[in-house]
Design goal:
mainly alpha, 3 strands, 3-stranded mixed β-sheet, elongated, Conserved hypothetical protein from pyrococcus furiosus pfu- 392566-001, ParB domain, 5% strand, single chain, 66% helix
């Protein structure tokens, strides 16, 4: 934009609207304004848009759609203002903008359901709206921990959605263990192939199964750290662990 304005000048006017505090408020043309400031220009041609608060907020979204110069979070903030400041329903907003009600609902949820820390990360461009929508389904107190797990294990959007579903479906006391080690999601990834080219198919298959056992055992260990188990539960679990130890001992002997 800076290079375009340097070469050809301002090709189209920015759009402004009268401000309640006096002067004018920019509705469309934020990139042109920044380019103008960077070039040291003192004047911009502008079109003055008259209308009420609702019409101007709708125009802010619609005028910036084509140029894709407004992000999902900015859209969400304008839509949130239309609901809480202007008293419109989500259906009325959808009709005003020519969009589906679900689109309006998803955007507003980013503002209403996300915790302050995640909203700030979205403002800084560190968190995409796609991940934000998934995390918004969780209670605010769990969102930061879930994001930490997503970042630690480099979960994809699909895996993140799966993580959120697991957290919502499982008892609350399992949540910490799931976030420490989401083995159900990691198990769905293809296990890494051994680098030893001398290893045959049978060995590779068995190695994959043993690695899955290792991940499950790690998850169980994390769960036991926080799980409220009765003495009876512990005795039953200890019995099963004993049988597993015996079987693993046989495997170790066979492998050795």
């Amino acid at each position: 934009m800076v290079e375009s304005m340097r070469r050809y000048g301002q090709l189209s006017p920015v759009v402004v609207a009268p401000s309640m505090e006096g002067g004018y408020e920019l509705i469309d043309g934020f990139k042109r304004l920044r380019a103008c400031q960077k070039l040291g220009l003192e004047n911009l041609r502008a079109t003055v848009l008259e209308g009420g608060s609702r019409a101007l907020k709708a125009a802010m979204i619609q005028l910036n759609w084509k140029a894709r110069s407004i992000g999902k979070l900015e859209e969400a903030m304008v839509l949130h203002s239309l609901v809480h400041d202007d008293g419109l329903t989500q259906l009325e907003i959808a009709t005003l903008l020519g969009r589906h009600k679900s689109w309006v609902s998803r955007r507003i949820a980013l503002i209403e359901r996300l915790c302050d820390e995640l909203l700030e990360q979205m403002r800084l461009g560190l968190l995409s709206a796609t991940f934000g929508r998934e995390l918004a389904r969780l209670p605010r107190g769990n969102q930061e921990a879930a994001l930490a797990t997503i970042q630690k294990y480099h979960l994809t959007t699909r895996e993140s959605a799966r993580l959120v579903c697991i957290l919502l479906e499982r008892p609350r006391w399992e949540g910490q263990a799931i976030l420490k080690f989401p083995h159900e999601i990691l198990d769905e990834r293809s296990p890494p192939r051994p680098r030893d080219s001398a290893m045959g198919r049978a060995g590779q298959s068995l190695l994959g199964r043993l690695m899955a056992i290792e991940r499950s055992a790690l998850w169980i260990s994390k769960t036991l750290e926080i799980s409220p188990l009765s003495p009876t539960d512990r005795l039953r679990l200890a019995s099963v662990v004993g049988r597993i130890e015996q079987t693993l001992g046989q495997i170790k002997t066979q492998v050795g």
